Amino acid sequence: MVSERTLPEFNTVSIQLTKAEGLMLYEDMTLGRLFEDKCAEMYYRGRMFGFVHLYNGQEAVSTGIIKALRPGEDYVSSTYRDHVHALSCGVPPREVMAELFGKETGCSKGRGGSMHLFSEKHRLLGGYAFVAEGIPVATGAAFQSKYRREMMGDDSADQVTACFFGDGASNNGQFFECLNMASLWKLPIIYVVENNKWAIGMAHDRATSEPEIYKKASVFDMVGVEVDGMDVLAVRKVAQEAVDRARAGEGPTLIEALTYRFRGHSLADPDELRSPDEKQFWGNKDPIQRLEAYLIEHNLANQSELDEIKQKVQASVDDAVKFAEESPEPDPKELYRYIFAED
């Protein structure tokens, strides 16, 4: 059964997109897709272990939101489906892949694995294994930005925080408590619901009294926006508007991005609950193919340029695997390191 909820219409006529911007968005989405495909290959070949949740199909959300932020300045809080968020933040593919292999050169020094990617340099606050666990962390990050600016007189503290979570998390207590707090204090935060229709094996429409999550923002006197999460240009537009509001001190935004994961919940999931018709319906809306068609149609790129980007990205992903395989394992003598902050 295909969800009856239709995707919101988006007018591309008013879009102002340069060739450089278009190719940047395309490269970031392609990196996410090819990186995840390689992760699946490594997992099934027994080279990667533990739970691995892939992002295939949702690339427009990560790219559209994160590329609207200031790199290395604004904050991002992720979920257990965090590989592509990390890549969009600028964490090098080598460091992400090495972390998935449990190596010392990983962005979390081999201690975090697939669900716990972290990078202070890139302002990635972490991936979180528990549903809705990152929402309070992101809210705290937004609070400290506002506090530093308004109470400590730090004019440079105008950072915006983007908090990603799934549709299942919108039924958890942290969601309601944090949105209430963020609205009361007008925190500079964007709450991004990646509604991919399924919370593990539970269909979204069966799990909530109000399936249209963005409408819940009205309860907190907050801006709520629904967007086609399979269209990177649509996501980017609402993200830029939300960032501008947050940075101007106008408070938080709740963005519900309607998207779909092309693979099962994790690589251990046989994915037998979703119907073939549903998968085909959303597969036909592949966000990378849609951007590719847009760029060519509007003379922002030709096929050879896009193919060159794919080859470049694939080489980067292959290099990341080689780097991960050749990297050292964490030293057992340092088992307790990184538990506490170091000088």
Mean pLDDT reading: 96
N→C terminal distance: 55 Å
Looking at the structure, what is the overall shape?
Answer: globular
Helix content bin: 25-40%
* Contiguous runs where pLDDT drops below 50 for at least 5 residues: none
What topology, given as strand order, has the largest sheet? 1-2-3-7-6
Structural class: alpha/beta
The CATH topology corresponds to Rossmann fold
Relevant CATH superfamily: Thiamin diphosphate (ThDP)-binding fold, Pyr/PP domains
Based on the structure, what is the oligomeric state of the protein chains? single chain
Number of helices: 10
CATH architecture: 3-Layer(aba) Sandwich
The first-level CATH class name: Alpha Beta
Largest sheet: 5 strands, parallel
Number of strands: 7
What does this structure look like?
The protein is an alpha/beta fold and 343 residues long. It has one domain (19-324): 3-Layer(aba) Sandwich (Rossmann fold). The chain contains 10 helices and 7 strands. Strand 4 (198-199) and strand 5 form a beta hairpin. The chain is globular. The model has no long low-confidence stretch (mean pLDDT 96). It catalyses: N(6)-[(R)-lipoyl]-L-lysyl-[protein] + pyruvate + H(+) = N(6)-[(R)-S(8)-acetyldihydrolipoyl]-L-lysyl-[protein] + CO2. Its EC number is 1.2.4.1. Keywords: Oxidoreductase, Pyruvate, Thiamine pyrophosphate.
